[in-house]
């Protein structure tokens, strides 16, 4: 039972990892062909934005990117002869996700000290001082909440063989941020982070 | 009289926190993420175990392209959270920010 409990955090830490056909020899792949990316519903141009972010990121990482006249994009990833098709579906593309943060204000309590002082003008000029301390306990109470709007971009990615249709790699994730353009760019970059592990 | 005074101090203190929240939100709306962060720090000082505040802090730092501080904020968010969705989100950010470093 203890071993099982130890395994749970490990599972939670890895559950977003891509699915991979481990028997597939990625070293034989020379290029991947990025298929046209369709717009997210009611968000005209989102497909093109994601595609451009991806090709830009591939270039920044040093891969050769070839865009031909048929709106196909080829990315050279190695010296192998085989090619893979890369499809991307935008599963989320919004700049209007409302986030609510419940905010708890903590009254940490306080200590009140009362000092009473008296002096008498006598021959010995005596002074007396009385100090009283009272501690007031604090409490935690729900104070307020903060609402803000953020952007969220989700992608479903697949790599498959064009002739057999065999799926060799698949990943689904989303990314968040305060600015839609930046979030889309970061989301595309995250895909490349996973790509570098197989090519 | 004393109680009234204490109540006054306490309500001023709570409204100061609310004011910081308002100012965080107002600065974010204006796109002034640097100022929003400084107000958010005041809020975090009084609610330091709230993962959602660190989530916001991480995103604010990312918007300012401050990867190091963003990474710290997301790590803290992940540490404090017991919400799987938020942990997953934090993992994605941590993974990418480590790559960018």
Task: Summarize the topology.
The complex is a heterodimer of chains A (199) and B (101).
Chain A: H1 2-14, E1 19-20, E2 29-34, H2 46-60, E3 64-67, E4 73-76, E5 82-107, E6 110-119, E7 127-136, E8 139-160, E9 167-177, H3 180-198
Parallel strand pairs in A: 2-5
Antiparallel strand pairs in A: 1-9, 2-4, 3-4, 5-8, 6-7, 8-9
Chain B: H1 2-30, H2 33-46, H3 51-63, H4 67-80, H5 84-100
Helix pairs in contact in B: 1-2, 2-3, 3-4, 4-5
Spatial order of the strands in the main sheet of chain A? 1-9-8-5-2-4-3
The computed structural class of chain A is: alpha+beta
Compute the CA-based radius of gyration of chain B: 16 Å
Oligomer: heterodimer
Count of individual domains of chain B: 1
> What would CATH call the architecture of chain B?
Alpha Horseshoe
Q: CATH superfamily of chain B, called what?
A: Tetratricopeptide repeat domain
Instruction: List the total number of helices of chain A.
Output: 3
In whole angstroms, how far apart are the ends of chain B? 57 Å
What does the average pLDDT of chain B come to? Answer: 83
The share of residues in helices of chain A is 10-25%
CATH class bucket of chain B: Mainly Alpha
Number of strands of chain A: 9
Strand content of chain B: under 5%
SSE string of chain A, helix = H, strand = E? HEEHEEEEEEEH
Task: Tell me about this structure.
The complex is a heterodimer of chains A (about 200) and B (about 100). Chain A contains 3 helices and 9 strands; from the N terminus they run H-E-E-H-E-E-E-E-E-E-E-H. Chain A is α+β, with helices and mostly antiparallel strands and about 200 residues long. In chain A, the strands form 2 sheets. A 7-stranded mixed sheet of chain A has the order 1-9-8-5-2-4-3, covered by helices on one side. In chain A, strands 6-7 form a two-stranded antiparallel sheet. In chain A, helix 2 crosses helix 3. Chain B has a single domain, classed as Serine Threonine Protein Phosphatase 5, Tetratricopeptide repeat (Alpha Horseshoe). Chain B is globular. The model of chain B is unreliable at about 5-15 (pLDDT under 50). The interface of A and B includes residues 15, 101, 105, 175 and 176 of A.
């Amino acid at each position: 039972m203890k071993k099982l409990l130890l395994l749970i955090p490990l599972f939670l830490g890895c559950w977003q990892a891509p699915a991979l056909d481990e028997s597939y020899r990625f070293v034989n792949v020379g290029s991947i062909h990025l298929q046209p990316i369709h717009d997210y519903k009611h968000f005209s141009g989102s497909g093109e934005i994601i595609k451009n972010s991806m090709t830009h990121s591939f270039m920044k990482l040093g891969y050769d990117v070839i865009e031909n006249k048929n709106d196909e994009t080829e990315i050279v990833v190695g010296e192998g002869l085989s090619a893979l098709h890369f499809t991307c579906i935008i599963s989320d593309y919004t700049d209007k996700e409302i986030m609510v943060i419940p905010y708890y204000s903590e009254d940490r309590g306080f200590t009140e000290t009362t000092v009473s002082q008296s002096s008498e003008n006598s021959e010995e000029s005596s002074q007396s001082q009385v100090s009283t301390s009272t501690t007031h306990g604090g409490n935690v109470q729900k104070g307020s909440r903060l609402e803000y709007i953020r952007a969220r971009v989700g992608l479903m990615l697949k790599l498959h063989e064009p002739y057999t249709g065999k799926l060799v790699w698949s990943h689904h994730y989303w990314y968040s941020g305060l600015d839609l353009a930046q979030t889309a760019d970061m989301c595309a970059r995250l895909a490349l982070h996973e790509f570098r592990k197989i090519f | 009289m004393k109680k009234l005074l204490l109540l006054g101090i306490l309500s001023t203190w709570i409204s100061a926190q609310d004011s910081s929240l308002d100012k965080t939100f107002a600065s974010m709306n204006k796109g002034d993420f640097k100022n929003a962060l400084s107000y958010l720090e005041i809020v975090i000082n009084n609610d330091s175990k709230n993962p959602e505040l660190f989530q916001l802090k991480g995103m604010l730092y990312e918007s300012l392209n401050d990867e190091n501080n963003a990474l710290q904020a997301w790590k803290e968010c992940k540490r404090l959270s017991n919400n799987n969705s938020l942990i997953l989100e934090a993992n994605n950010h941590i993974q990418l920010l480590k790559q960018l470093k």
